Amino acid sequence: MPAVSKGDGMRGLAVFISDIRNCKSKEAEVKRINKELANIRSKFKGDKALDGYSKKKYVCKLLFIFLLGHDIDFGHMEAVNLLSSNKYTEKQIGYLFISVLVNSNSDLISLINNGIKNDLASRNPTFMNLALHCIANVGSREMAEAFASQIPSILVAGDTMDSVKQSAALCLLRLNRTSPDLVPMGEWTARVVHLLNDQHLGVVTAATSLITTLAQKSPEDFRTSISLAVARLSRIVTSASIDLQDYTYYFVAAPWLSVKLLRLLQCYPPPEDAALRSRLTECLETILNKAQEPPKSKKVQHSNAKNAVLFEAIALIIHHDSEPTLLVRACNQLGQFLQHRETNLRYLALESMCTLASSEFSHEAVKTHIDTVINALKTERDVSVRQRAVDLLYAMCDRSNSKQIVAEMLSYLENADYSIREEIVLKVAILAEKYAVDYTWYVDTILNLIRIAGDHVSEEVWYRVIQIVINQDDVQGYAAKTVFEALQAPACHENLLKVGGYILGEFGNLIAGDPRSSPLVQFNLLHSKFHLCSVPTRALLLSAYIKFINLFPEVKPTIQDVLRSDSQLRNADVELQQRAIEYLRLSCIASTDILATVLEEMPPFPERESSILAKLKKKKGPGKVPDMDEARWNVNGNTEHSENTEPTNKAPSHPFTDLLNMNSSPAAGASLLVDVLSDLSSPAPAPTTGPGPTDVCEEHFSRFVCKNNGVIFENQLLQIGLKSEYRQNLGRIYVFYGNKTSSQFLSFSSSVTSSDTLKTQLNVHTMPVDPTVEGGAQLQQILNIECLSDFSDTPVLNVQFRYGGTLQNIAVKLPVMLNKFFQPTEMTSEDFFQRWKQLGVPQQEVQTIFKAQHPMDTDVTNAKILGFGVALLTGVDPNPANFVGAGVIHTKNTQVGCLLRLEPNPQAEMYRLTLRTSRESVSQRLCDLLSEQF
Amino acid sequence: MIKAILIFNNHGKPRLSKFYEHYNEDTEQQIIRETFHLVSKRDENVCNFLEGGMLIGGSDYKLIYRHYATLYFVFCVDSSESELGILDLIQVFVETLDKCFENVCELDLIFHVDKVHNILAEMVMGGMVLETNMNEIIMQVDAQNKMEKSETFIFQSTRQDR
């Protein structure tokens, strides 16, 4: 009797589905669906309560609409309501809707949880199963929080029905996957292990799945499961098939359970207990033996089931990797499958052999199948199988068969599926490098790779070949010759041009002796392809050209012509343009010695893991690439070479790609080149236009005689400003250094120097400053000054810093003058003239007559005299046009009174300045200072 | 673990989709299309396993499929499942459907999508194989049908169905 009779379907549903199926167009279908959605929505919203049948019908319609790929944004509430129904039909359809349509973060979860809770407590096994299914299918965190603690007790309770136990085990497994932290471990774990002894094989199967997952996380807690699993497996394997009744599938006893048990055993090492171990070995031998027996049925299901167990047994043998006889038997068995007519078996045999190849016991045995595998690569119709064959060849490759395998993979590459070409390229590149006995073979192989599948050759592959050629000097000549020949092809891949450009640029001289590959021929060959390639490749070729200029002086004019052409010098791409300009300039101005130093051969690369291997690992995910310690061989094969290299010339330790990447900052080895070029390209720095480093700047000095603040120095790079204040014999100057450029000043320092005489007269104490001045930033320095006695020399401010690699020296006369230590003195006319007479000794008076250099403005003159530091006395001189001032110079040792008189003669544009102080030197100095101000 | 079970016909029309990991509706539809694209272009008599498409998780997952007349049955599984075991499970599933529907055909799956889901639920739960014994499965399905009949039979004859 059929379990579902065809007549009892829901007619309304059938009509709707038929309508949809009869729709002629997508539009008609959408229209019909929208009509139905509207109908259902109105039914759900309607006043009339729907009976269970109608609800079920509408929910089925919604499921169908959903399956067609339309969003269902309502009905969830109705479905949740169905959970609380007492009728099985309604409950079931409610759960179905939820498990298909409700996602784990729905806001209805709490309502759903309520329904589940009731059903779990119902003790009705059917309802409990529905609830457990729902938890397992949705598997959300809220559900785990609500039920994770309850399910273990359902699982191990003595009175739970078998079917509920099965569901509970898998439900727990699911929650353990989604929210492991919420599943409490406890005394139930021991009882779960004993489910392996359960009568019901369905329960055992579900429990085995659960235990396998838990054992992977905490192996110690479930170690007791090993003996139970072995015992159970043994009973199944040795049983006559009839013992297990329904769990026999096409004459194979409980194949799924066997597979699961074998999987569980793969969580552990071989059993330590000798008896247990021999019992397991016996099981595995029996499984291997059965494979040789004639099939009990011709049906494919029979062999499938049998082989499912067999493959899992082999997987366990490989996992244990401890019984050489079993390993060899397993290998032979797989060898048989390699030629089986069933594609599935060939596929699985190739896959299993990959893991077998890494075992030391069976590696040699696997290698005996090389011809079969190569044949599979050539003849299999199915790309999935061919891909497994590539994997196996890669895994079985060693020094003895590498040339054969690489050759076969290369020839397969010519016709390989595009989807797997890149992977094959990586594998060939790795094998060629790993097993290269002589590097000529390696170079040939990589060039072949580029020729055959240039588009699939990633950067890492051609970087790597260059790395190796540079580090192995015995292969350099061969490499140059080979790339030169390969470039002769009328159409060659851009990757080949990159390798060729780089190698000829470094080692083209090694083949230049042959007239067929003379420098000019080499250059013309490269340049003939120049215009067809991308910007990065062209940039690389330009670098090769400048290297040529160094290697072959005879082609210098030719290359300079190329660099000079508008298509280079005015190239729209800034990188190409810059390279052309800089290289051209370099070739014009640098001497041969400098060229040779700048463009010397690249130093060897430091040892590191193959970048290709890293790429394959990334592509396949960690753990999927067989460990290949040997692949990390020393690329500095020539140790002598690396010892001779100066430490500063050693290639930097950052990845190889940086060396070739035009955008990154140049590596240490090339820094010389950069320095030379930066001088050429940056705006002319200060020394060429500004004052020379030894000249002391006093341009603005005199401005500071009558004022204390302002800019004392300025050039393209730097501005120095001052703010000063004085009290009696003490002074303080704030010096501001402004960086006018956008780049840093490095090693910045400044100091004040004085003549020996001055040192006894004036103390200047400088505060230390930061050695770095950021671009556009200002740095402040404080100078403390003490005047010991009167002085006439000037201290000098020396500034040093490094800008763009060049040392800058600036020296400025620091405007510290005697008049800065004036204290103005107010006095009456009477006092003034009395003192004036007292200072009547001829040496005490200094007088000078000079021509006015500025317009003779009274206010300005007033200000200047005040700025000079003296008090301006009005009403003293009988002639109001004259200026009279008085002050006292403070030094540490003495104070010097000072009187001055300035008489302008506007008609003649002349001044007469008279100073009287108690000291001749002071009078002279002050007169010198002041007379220059007008 | 089984990540998804998909049934679609030779034209890529989905007839059943069951995801054991949550995706949004759009992604589910895209996965169905991608899987159909991968599976349908393969010849008959090639092997039944292939690496999963990008959307479903790439080479960490396998598609294990069988093609019956007009329908493809595709299971997407991770490495913890035995390929041949799943292949047999598909066979059990189809044989069970065949028994329940008497010579199952595509139309049965279309018109009884709820039943198909219920049968599948007896076999696979939360992405794990629950039961592989066909008799046990059919017994459960029969029991459900009986309960269903007892609940609905009385109303059926008089209903005005729209």
UniProtKB/TrEMBL annotation, chain A:
Coiled coil: none annotated. A 1,2-diacyl-sn-glycero-3-phospho-(1D-myo-inositol-3,4,5-trisphosphate) binds at residues 11-12, 43, 53, 57-61. Keywords: Cell membrane, Coated pit, Endocytosis, Membrane, Protein transport, Transport. Residues 635-651 have a biased composition (Polar residues). It is a peripheral membrane protein. Residues 702-815 form the Clathrin adaptor alpha/beta/gamma-adaptin appendage Ig-like subdomain domain. The keyword Membrane applies. One of its GO terms (biological process) is intracellular protein transport. Its main location: membrane. Signal peptide: none annotated. InterPro entries: Adaptor_Complx_Large_Subunit, AP2_complex_asu, ARM-like, ARM-type_fold, Clathrin/coatomer_adapt-like_N, Clathrin_a-adaptin_app_sub_C, Clathrin_a/b/g-adaptin_app_Ig, Clathrin_app_Ig-like_sf. It is found in: Cell membrane; Membrane, Coated pit. GO terms for cellular component: AP-2 adaptor complex. Residues 616-661 are annotated as: Disordered. Adaptor protein complex 2 (AP-2) is a heterotetramer composed of two large adaptins (alpha-type subunit AP2A1 or AP2A2 and beta-type subunit AP2B1), a medium adaptin (mu-type subunit AP2M1) and a small adaptin (sigma-type subunit AP2S1). Belongs to the adaptor complexes large subunit family. Component of the adaptor protein complex 2 (AP-2). Adaptor protein complexes function in protein transport via transport vesicles in different membrane traffic pathways. Adaptor protein complexes are vesicle coat components and appear to be involved in cargo selection and vesicle formation. AP-2 is involved in clathrin-dependent endocytosis in which cargo proteins are incorporated into vesicles surrounded by clathrin (clathrin-coated vesicles, CCVs) which are destined for fusion with the early endosome. This is AP-2 complex subunit alpha. It comes from Pagothenia borchgrevinki (Bald rockcod).
TrEMBL record, chain B:
InterPro entries: AP_complex_ssu, AP_mu_sigma_su, APS3, Clathrin_sm-chain_CS, Longin-like_dom_sf. It is found in: Cytoplasmic vesicle membrane; Golgi apparatus. Residues 1-147 form the AP complex mu/sigma subunit domain. It is a peripheral membrane protein. Keywords: Cytoplasmic vesicle, Golgi apparatus, Membrane, Protein transport, Transport. CDD domains: AP3_sigma. One of its GO terms (biological process) is intracellular protein transport. The keyword Transport applies. It comes from the Eukaryota. PROSITE patterns: CLAT_ADAPTOR_S. One of its GO terms (cellular component) is cytoplasmic vesicle membrane. Part of the AP-3 complex, an adaptor-related complex which is not clathrin-associated. The complex is associated with the Golgi region as well as more peripheral structures. It facilitates the budding of vesicles from the Golgi membrane and may be directly involved in trafficking to lysosomes. In concert with the BLOC-1 complex, AP-3 is required to target cargos into vesicles assembled at cell bodies for delivery into neurites and nerve terminals. Belongs to the adaptor complexes small subunit family. This is AP complex subunit sigma.
